[in-house]
Amino acid sequence: MAAAAPEPKRGDSPAPGRAATPPPEERVRVAIRVRPLSAKEAADGAKLIVSTASGGGGDFVAVDGAKGQRERFECDRALWSVSPAGGGAAPADAPPCVSQAEVYADIGAPLLDNALRGFNSCVLAYGQTGSGKTHTMMGGVDGHGRLQVADPAAAGLIPRLCDDLFRRIAPAATPLARTTSGSRPVRLSWTVKASYVEVYNENVTDLLGGRKAVALQQSSTGFDLSGAAKLPVTSAEQVLALIAKGNEGRATGATSMNEHSSRSHAVVVLFLQETMHTTQRNGATTEQPTRSSTVKLVDLAGSERQSDTGATGARLKEANNINKSLTTLGMVIRALGDPKRALPVPYRDSKLTKLLQDSFGGNSKTTMIATVGPSVATEQATLSTLRYAATARKVVNKPKVAGGRRARPQSSRERRKQLLARLHVPGQRRRE
Ligand SMILES: Nc1ncnc2c1ncn2[C@@H]1O[C@H](COP(=O)(O)OP(=O)(O)OP(=O)(O)O)[C@@H](O)[C@H]1O
Ligand SMILES: [Mg+2]
After folding, report:
1. What is the percent of the chain with per-residue pLDDT over 70, rounded to a whole number?
2. Nearest CA to ligand 1 atom 15
3. Which residue, among 198, 201, 128, has the nearest Cα to 389 in the 3D structure?
4. pTM of this prediction?
5. What confidence tier does 91 reach under pLDDT thresholds 50, 70, 90?
6. What range does the domain containing 379 cover?
7. Cα separation of 23 and 36, whole Å?
8. Is residue 180 assigned to a domain?
9. How far apart are alpha carbons 58 and 21 in whole angstroms?
10. How far is the CA of 133 from the centre of ligand 1 (A)?
11. Which ligand 1 atom sits closest to the C-alpha of 34?
């Protein structure tokens, strides 16, 4: 996936966040995806200045600045998606282009594994306008915000995750387990509910509930979306139809850097609940909720520099609000990543950070996909995205499994046998 590591050059600045990076199980994971050249960049012959590499136990992204300086950024996954089809020739030593399917395999599938184990999970795409966030999260979306299902290879992380989720929780795929007491037959099933909201100009709007305003309710773990519609769904197609319907009312527009720019932060939330069905001796079935988790899938609006986009009037107001919430998220990340924890964590300063309180510094396994352009045309925005992502990588979360009693998949005799085998007690006679 990645080419040979670019040799560090003299004068390389240290990779931000390299020192004392916390263990990957609990900290926010960061993937960096490099998009193809845009048609304009290709037409202008814009020079490629970004490269990816792996080596020394991690992946890296390097930016060779216009003034000859190189900055390297360590990350959990470097995703090089600079296809020659995007315009311009890829360098001879460029790694193979990472497809939408590979992005799902690298980031979406492990996230779903965690969610089905009972961990709250979040993946969010962060980057400059036009850098590929919506492409990564949703995939092909037309000018009206409708998902393009005609090209399955273009499907992004959200449709793929929905597909995988319903395949994995289909009744045929859920195991028949047995409880320890009396070996009563037990079956596990999952139910799924979906919400879809956008944050636009500092208002949260319910995209599945007639676009009504949603008040964020403070809960013990953060702020929740209890006011938003939470619709039961039983197939990927149903979720995608809801998202497509929600997208019809979504705020999008054209900037000089992206014809179909997302002008709001879009948040899809899937609520997963596992239930244990136990057949009693008399044949009756009892149901008990067991594991549960929440999956937040976030396509942020792009950060933008007024000088790059030329925004004025309403577009400028939107841009200022977008930048405000992203700056507040940046301040939350900086405060959480500071080992001394000297700064207050300003979750309350924007709707976006209230919504993401659990995902940063709370009970969640979180991955940020930082999306960047490959060329000199976006050098400053690329560097600022990579610095932001490096700070996010220092944030340590407290993920824990939520849920009641778990169904034990084996009889007590089998469990005892496994326990003894694990203990390796010398001379221990195993009573079968
Ligand atoms: N990895 C990629 N492969 C192919 N095309 C891509 C890729 N990333 C982005 N693009 C294309 O670049 C353009 C801009 O991408 P996209 O709309 O996803 O940007 P964005 O980051 O969501 O921008 P905004 O913040 O303005 O919403 C689209 O035409 C998209 O198809
Ligand atoms: Mg977008």
Report:
1. 75
2. 132
3. 128
4. 0.84
5. low
6. 3-423
7. 32
8. yes
9. 12
10. 6
11. 1
The mean predicted confidence, pLDDT, of the chain is 81
More confident residue, 251 or 380: 380
Q: How far apart are CA 246 and CA 138, in angstroms?
A: 13
Q: For the chain, how many structural domains are there in total?
A: 1
- Output Rg (C-alpha) for the chain, integer angstroms: 23
CATH number at 29 reads: 3.40.850.10
Identify whether the C-beta of residue 193 lies closer than 8 Å to the C-beta of residue 183: no
The amino acid sitting at 99 is S
Is 429 within a domain? no
Q: Is the CB of 359 under 6 A from ligand 1?
A: no
**83 assigned to some structural domain:** yes
Pick from 21, 129, 7: nearest CA to 72: 7
Q: List the shell of residues around ion ligand 2, using CB closer than 5 Å.
A: 133-134, 262
User: Is the CB of 260 within 6 Å of ligand 1?
Assistant: yes
Residue type at 339 in one-letter notation: P
- Amino acid present at 250: R
Q: What atom in ligand 1 is closest to the CA of residue 258?
A: 26
CA 418 centroid distance within chain: 36
Can you tell me which atom of ligand 1 is nearest the CA of 135?
A: 18
* Sequence-ordered list of residues with C-beta below 8 angstroms from that of 10, at least 6 positions apart, any chain: none
Distance (angstroms) between ligand 2 centre and the Cα of 243 equals: 14
Determine the Cα–Cα distance for residues 378 and 38; give it in Å rounded to an integer: 11
**The tokens of 102 are what?**
């590979």
Position 428 in a domain: no
